[in-house]
Amino acid sequence: MAVTTQSTAKTTTVSATRPKGTPYQLDPDQTLKASRALLQHVQAETKRIQEASSKTSLLAAETSDPDDDVAGDGEAPIWLTLTTKQHIVDQTRLKPSKISVPHSLNTSPDLRICLITTDPQRAVKNVVADPAFPAPLKSRITRVIGFSKLKSRYKTFEQRRQLLAEHDIFLADDRIITRLPAVMGKVFYKGTAKRPIPISIAKPQKGKKETSQKSTKTEGSAPPTSPAALAKEIEKAIDAVPVSLRPGTLVAVRVGLVSFQPEQLADNIAAVVQNVIDKHVVKGWRNVRGIHIKGQSSVAVPIWLADELWTETDDIAVNNADNDGVDDDQGQKRKRNPESTKGPQVGSRKKTKVGEGKDDKAAVERGLVEARKSKLAAQKARIFGEEV
């Protein structure tokens, strides 16, 4: 449904992009409309809670989880959830990554950064301490720690929790990013707010093909990159949003803050959706079932819904009364009694010749497919036709 929006002085990327006649893309107008409605709802709910609350709970503040954002906090995140039709199980697609967005979620000048490197860590410390490394960024890097020291020094739950509280962002060498969950534990990976973001620290080796598996002794043999290149990589990671996936059909990514303008949120949504689908979703848009945005405790607002719940026509299972058998509880094939006197199969079945009835079966399948499409289209029109 086309939505007329008021023109603003600032031209945004989303509003300038128009659909190209295919359903497999975001509608900029719908994205902007949903962003505006969600931010208005979250801000109104925040104001209502603040007015209703006469005093704060000190106990709640002390025992709150780092991922639980307090109502009224302008830094509370806005989430994008993308559901797929088929599971994402490819290990290469499940590797943590980052997405560059037009509007950064980390704008504080007092950001505390912890840099996790391969062994030996001294080589990276020397690069950070180099005079060519930008001073403003150097002041925000409060700790550089190697993988072996991280593993030996932070063994207990309290030690890891203290490390988590001392820093705002954790950046890790992409060569060890997949080994960190076993070392850092659920303190870091229970939520998604402070999971380590992968960065490239090693200097590119020309003419050498990197292997997928490297031992701990040789993974840090490559020298670190130059101070300027490392600083650029860190700044790029700070301005990006992390993507952490696991086997399943749901992907959740932070795309904005409550303090964002609707146009800013829409810009980030467009960048994140395109990157996630291209890089992490097998079969691309055809495997996407729905895309929603939501606040920390709000309902999910749809911005895109698929007309079909399958990726290929062959995935459709049609009940056929002429099946020769059904699977029992043990997975064995057993034949039905053609002349049973109980159940829906009462009486004898009419036997057909080989090849007879195939056209009727195909017609039934096409009818079911068209009926399903019509039903989903009606549901989609009803959802998007209502005022969000």
Automatic annotation (TrEMBL):
InterPro entries: eL8/uL1-like, Ribosomal_uL1-like, Ribosomal_uL1/biogenesis, Ribosomal_uL1_3-a/b-sand. Residues 1-29, 45-72, 199-226, 320-365 are annotated as: Disordered. Residues 353-365 have a biased composition (Basic and acidic residues). GO terms for molecular function: RNA binding. Residues 1-17 have a biased composition (Low complexity). It comes from the Eukaryota. CDD domains: Ribosomal_L1 (cd00403). This is Ribosome biogenesis protein UTP30. It comes from Capronia epimyces CBS 606.96. The lineage of its organism: Eukaryota, Fungi, Dikarya, Ascomycota, Pezizomycotina.
